[in-house]
């Protein structure tokens, strides 16, 4: 016969175990409620299916897009919803087939433009368990962009008057903050706009370095007190650049005005001097620029007395200044004087979320400029998303203006692209009947280039240097294609 005390202890242990299970169950329920609240409060559509295309969960945002309660979708296959005409297309099948993240642009039944991205969720065996789809309404983003532009237009009348009086030449080139990378850059630019530290903006040609410089100026107290003066150091002959920057006294050299001339530093007094292509400065001018930055004073050519200035300098370059320092073509002391707040703007191919909003913004701007109302097909926009933009934002802007002006159709499509865009490297743009999309072809080429480089080099830094991109991009891409270095 069991002892009563032993039986009591056994019951007590059971009771403690039950309490723990109940406590865990409650915590799990709380976490599920929190997760549901987070998903439901997302402005973008979140749609979760299993590997068979069965809808597991979606959020309230889908009601705004489809006008159908979210509960209707749960427990239904996407195939069935497409057949009934409730969904226009589904990214689920594409993700299951390609076993990777897939994105495309399409219109819903109300004509709203959507950016749809499907992401696979893998189990421990590397098999797809679920697909999480995110749908973003680009139409509303475009409308907000248009509203922002309209609000900016309202300010232009008095601003132009003020700029004329102050001799300013500041042009609003348009800013798109769709990608996380660019949004963070402009958040930082906003934070440092009212400090006087020197800024060095780095990035490829055409990424928008001058736009960022103007943004910093426009959001600072200097915008009210002084001018924004831009000097392209690579566009002015070296023998003239010194007098352009520092000015000259009357009769300082043959042909000089007898009254002398103020240089760009003086014109930018109490404002901002933007030195673009800073890497093109000669070593002798680098010495004089360093002195101006350190002493906050300049000496005109032919002058005998230094002149105090109050100027914030923002410099920019597409060259690798650190390598130039090692080669002896750029002064180390000037490099560190300029590199107080370095800002690297990624190329357009590394921030593809910005491409469609930029396309829409440039298209609207060109339509307005030439009093037109042209549109672009989703096929063409998908090409823009996939294309490797060597000329970045400037190239995209110029191409859109060219397409609008030379295409005689209302709807601009992929076949209207100039000849040089109809191939990406050796890869032809697929026709609508091709089994391979342009994005797939580009990704195949990208994978082959990365695989080849991975065999040749020992680490991702060497690969990034060889392929002229950033190391984080190489790491992300190699993980995407499951590529490892071969050495």
Automatic annotation (TrEMBL):
The keyword Manganese does not apply. PROSITE patterns: PAC, SIGMA54_INTERACT_1, SIGMA54_INTERACT_4. Residues 98-150 form the PAC domain. Keywords: Aromatic hydrocarbons catabolism, ATP-binding, Coiled coil, Nucleotide-binding. Pfam families: AAA_lid_14, HTH_50, Sigma54_activat. SMART domains: AAA. Residues 141-168 form a coiled coil. InterPro entries: AAA+_ATPase (IPR003593), AAA_lid_NorR (IPR058031), Homeodomain-like_sf (IPR009057), HTH_TyrR (IPR030828), P-loop_NTPase (IPR027417), PAS (IPR000014), PAS-assoc_C (IPR000700), PAS-like_dom_sf (IPR035965). One of its GO terms (molecular function) is DNA binding. Residues 175-405 form the Sigma-54 factor interaction domain. One of its GO terms (biological process) is regulation of DNA-templated transcription. NCBIfam families: sensory_box. This is HTH-type transcriptional regulatory protein TyrR. It comes from Alteribacter keqinensis.
